[in-house]
Amino acid sequence: MDVTEILESLNPEQRAAVTAPQGSALVLAGAGSGKTRVLTQRIAWLAQTQGLSPFGILAVTFTNKAAAEMRSRIEEHLAMPLRGMWVGTFHSLAHRFLRAHWLDAGLDQSFQIIDADDQLRLVKRILSNLSIDDKKWPAKQAVWWINAQKDEGLRPNHIQDEGDLYIRTHLSIYRAYEEACDRGGMVDFAELLLRMHETLLAQPALLNHYRERFKVILVDEFQDTNAIQYAWLRVLTGNADKLMVVGDDDQSIYGWRGAKIENIQRFQSDYPNAISYRLEQNYRSTGTILDAANALIEHNTDRLGKALWTDLGRGDPVSLYAAYNEIDEARYIVERIKNFFAEGNAYRDCAILYRSNAQSRVLEEAMLRSQLPYRIYGGQRFFERAEIRSALAYLKLLSQRHSDAAFERVVNLPPRGIGDKSIQIIRDAARSTNQSLWTAALNLTTHGGLTPRASSAVSGFLNLIDDLDVATENLDLAHLIEETVDASGLKAFYEKEGGEKGQARLENLEELVTAGQTFDPDDVPLFDEAVQPDMTLLDEFLSQAALEAGAGQGDQNQDSIQMMTMHSAKGLEFPLVFLAGLEEGLFPHQMSMDEPGRLAEERRLCYVGVTRAMTKLYFTYAETRRLNGTDRYNRVSRFVQEIPATLIEEVRSHEALVRPAYQTSHQVKRVASEVSGTEFQLGQKVGHAKFGEGVILNYEGHGQQARVQVKFEAVGTKWLMLSFAKLQSI
């Protein structure tokens, strides 16, 4: 593509950024504004009109996929292969540097990169060597702490414990970890950037070489950079004005993993000669969707400021559905998707976005029951998640002691001092006697064969299962699950993990309790009662979980509905988008409520979700949501209320109700005086623990599955499920 073609394909703002004079620049690129095009065509422009060699350009992005796309586009523009060009992620470019300058960096020539699993195993060995109790100081927490220090550019000698036991303990682990890595010639991902940064500062001649080589440095997704990444860029630019960064402060959503929005906010003070460009024309979404996004994000302060616009037309209003509960919410979404598909659209053009991974369970069940193909993008299905599989393994052992798979999974989870050698002894004993692992372990602890320490630990595990079985004998399914999660130590284990990941695991375990409370084997019959007459409710629940886990997601080439967290949705776009669970305490998340910085990031996350939609956007929330076995009565998210009402249509009509999918086949009734199959009547005065006194106006359904419409004196009219609401006659 020649220069004329490049310019003709750009709008005025894009053209200004592409043809900017060489120097420092900040390109504020809104969602769907064509920032990748600007970056790649900037490089082509520099090569074709300024005589700059592509090999004198450093282009940095955040994912291997984005880097490959950028390289491909540049090669297409310049019509030449560019394998030697420095285009890649921060980590891949640092790796390339360290391979070339391993001696200057103080590394072995054959140094090995260790992944997250290798890093965790190494830290576990260090904890053992230092005689540090891994129950009190979990290895995952130590890994997170070490990586966080490296992301800030801190070595152990830079950190003072100041008498803090937490810092002192992790500092000792960090020192031992560094020594082990040096001995073994190992480098983790965080080390790549820190080691390159330190090497450049320690080797002035080498630093000068790269400063001279890279005439221009371009960075994509600049709002996602952390402290060491920005320091890395600053040392390479030195005092020269040659850094162009492209980003969007309104899409900075990774503060929880170290990204610093302050980097983009202070860029122009660090580079006072930088020219600012704004890309505000959106090529993705309708005008209504963009107006909603703009109105939402304006509630954040300290923005650099921009307003998205489009010439694609106004489009439909944003639809808001107030569901009675999470099951009704899932039913509504399924119905809309079926209609969308019936109109000739593909499933892959539809995405369901949610704040918390735990929300996916009810949605997945609705998809499976309706036989709709779906994929969990960037994650696992609910019953395949590690913490859920571990909890199910404990439940399996309560029901079936001889489940070898369950035994192996949790015999040392949480860690209880049963090492790989002891487990192998149990395996060998089971194989030689043709017995289960449980029976072999019982025999070894009774008759000998393990070290005294290992025997004590294994006995403790066996006793835990037996005692838990007795303690939960008369509990209902939900309380049985809750007690198992707690008594097994899984809950405490993930609480200590901390961070966003630990919180997500805890929320998933809470959702497992809810799954037990709402489980009804009659909804999905698994076996003929004549064949399995004595199957317990726990057995049926475990069987259903296994079936859902084994159902398999659609493969990459299958036309499937896309389900994902809003964090996973960044960079994607879909004609039809649902933002589910827009409730106070869920989104924005409860943990962000009292921290202005975190609340602002939650709002940016919602902004990202809204701007994924191209043609049609739905908001849904549940007036009642069951979490951890208890009902929560929710207010609609403040984020919905921050969008002008003129942009939103409420699609639920109390006068034209639709029977939720979970109800019985009884027809909707509005004339009979008695609520069918219950003690209640129309016109009866009732009391509710939260809403106070009210009068029953209407109902639909039968028995405990019926819903009643109650007009409360304090809060107005509500629809409530009788099985959840616990109404009292007055």
Provide a descriptive summary of the structure in words:
By secondary structure, the protein is an alpha/beta fold. The chain has 5 domains: 3-102 and 194-281, Rossmann fold, CATH 3.40.50.300; 112-184, Arc Repressor Mutant, subunit A, CATH 1.10.10.160; 297-381 and 552-650, P-loop containing nucleotide triphosphate hydrolases (Rossmann fold), CATH 3.40.50; 384-543, PCRA, domain 4 (Orthogonal Bundle); 663-730, Thrombin, subunit H (Beta Barrel). 44% of the residues lie in helices and 15% in strands. The chain has 28 helices and 21 strands. The strands form 4 sheets. Strands 9, 10, 11, 12, 13, 14, 15 and 16 form an 8-stranded mixed beta sheet that branches. A 6-stranded parallel beta sheet has the order 3-2-6-7-1-8. α15 (326-342) crosses α16 (360-369) and α22 packs antiparallel against α24. The N and C termini lie far apart (79 Å). Residues 523-533 and 653-672 have low confidence and may be disordered.
